[in-house]
Design goal:
Shape: globular
Mean pLDDT: 92
Order of helices and strands: HEHEHEHHEEEEHHEHHHHEEEEHHHHEHH
Radius of gyration: 24 Å
Low-confidence stretches: 1-22
Number of helices: 17
Distance between the termini: 69 Å
Strand content: 5-15%
Number of strands: 13
């Protein structure tokens, strides 16, 4: 037997080949992302990568590096690209006013690999958004809506059998909740002040309409008014909101300390089992004047996958194979049903799939599907400098150290590309 193997090896070496049992190590693909294993989408990502490694065992091996601090993660990606240490695959938040990643010359153009089958997985509008000078440097991954979740029991105890439909009713409800000893809404000022900017954007869109709200405009009367409403809303949040981060603020909602929160679908996987039946998803309030569609939504920006440019064709093929795997039908279903994160890749859910969702997932899916127009969170169109200044400006605003007009003018001053 040994002699036979030796003859086979010798023959293979003679013709410049290596037999399978003597093959090189699998091509390693580093994937850098922010979806930690203590979240549903992080667990879904782990599962998908494990499935990939099993299917391509001995050929490819995906190795994940996770940084759950998203603002830090975003800046780390930029630094890695600048240092020519771009991860093989990574995700980021798309900002049309900051195309430094795409223009770095260090990302892979995915257009040559976009065959008809893969292209059909996405909406053309998403592909167009991410195409620059005919090159596809990013692959649509997800663009989540940040919706209003609310605790039905707490609202009912305050005399409300429905979610407020107007902003006046919203603040009346907040006052009623406050009288019951309950903070109306989770907000925070640290890190990226995401909850605060979600509320700011919803009010801004209600005042300005979708077109102006999506234009990237900051210095306008509608934004000043929205900042005034944000300042008002902090009177109805928790005492720890100033200086709190996402973890603290989301926990306040999940433990019943607040009655409402504006968040994406990733929150769903964190809802305790004994809270699921209490949590509902509401359609956002408006001013009732038709400035926005009745079922309007504030969304995160597109959060695409991207890949490092590769000199080795075999490594490039490995990276593309993993990207295709991450966006195939099965992976998309895992992200949706198990990760509570709705993907840009197309997916058809059966009645059985819908039945497998819990009540909050189904409500989110329905509100998301019924959305008549969407507005990207104002934060996602800001420059790096403006994003860095935003948390402290929000804090100064809610502490009364600056006015709404000063908040807007100072933010606009930082927003210089």
């Amino acid at each position: 037997m040994k002699r036979t193997l030796g003859i086979i090896l010798a023959l293979c070496l003679l013709v410049g080949m290596a037999p399978v049992s003597y093959a090189q190590e699998p091509i390693e693909i580093n994937i850098y992302h922010h979806m930690s294993s203590d979240t549903a989408r992080g667990q879904a990502t782990e599962k998908i990568l494990e499935m990939f490694n099993q299917e391509y065992e001995g050929i490819y091996k995906a190795v994940a590096d996770v940084n759950p601090d998203f603002p830090t993660y975003q800046e780390k990606v930029k630094a890695m690209i600048a240092a020519n240490e771009t991860p093989d695959i990574f995700c980021y938040t798309y900002n049309p006013n900051d195309l430094s990643r795409q223009k770095s010359g260090r990302l892979m153009d995915l257009m040559p690999y976009m065959d008809d089958e893969w292209k059909a997985r996405f909406n053309q509008s998403d592909l167009d958004l991410l195409t620059l000078d005919g090159k596809l440097y990013s692959l649509p991954r997800a663009q989540q809506a940040a919706v209003f979740y609310y605790n039905e029991e707490l609202l009912e105890a305050a005399g409300y059998d429905h979610f407020p439909t107007t902003w006046d009713e919203f603040f009346d409800c907040a006052e009623a909740l406050k009288e019951n000893g309950v903070a109306a809404i989770s907000l925070y000022t640290a890190d990226d002040a995401w909850y605060a900017t979600g509320l700011l954007t919803y009010v801004f869109a209600s005042l300005a309409g979708a077109e102006l709200a999506n234009s990237g405009t900051i210095e306008c009367e509608e934004m000043v008014q929205a900042a005034e409403y944000l300042q008002k809303a902090f009177a109805y949040t928790t005492n720890d909101a100033v200086g709190a981060n996402y973890s603290v603020s989301s926990s306040n909602f999940l433990t019943g300390k607040t009655a409402m929160v504006i968040d994406g679908p990733w929150l769903i996987g964190s809802i305790p089992e004994d809270m699921v039946d209490k949590i509902k998803v509401g359609v956002a309030p408006s001013f009732g004047d038709g400035k926005v569609a009745q079922n309007y939504l504030v969304t995160d920006a597109q959060a695409p996958w991207a890949a490092a440019a590769q000199e080795d064709p075999a490594k490039a093929e490995a990276v593309v194979t993993l990207l295709k795997y991450l966006t195939n039908e099965e992976s998309t279903k895992i992200y949706t049903l198990e990760g509570s994160e709705y993907q840009s890749a197309k997916l058809t859910l059966t009645d059985e799939d819908m039945a497998s969702m819990n009540s909050v997932q189904r409500e989110y899916f329905n509100v998301y599907s019924d959305g008549e127009e969407s507005i990207v969170n104002v934060q996602r169109n800001l420059s790096t400098a403006a994003n860095a200044a935003l948390p402290s400006l929000v804090e100064s605003l809610v502490l009364g150290e600056i006015t709404a007009e000063e908040f807007v003018s100072q933010l606009a001053a930082e927003n210089d590309y």
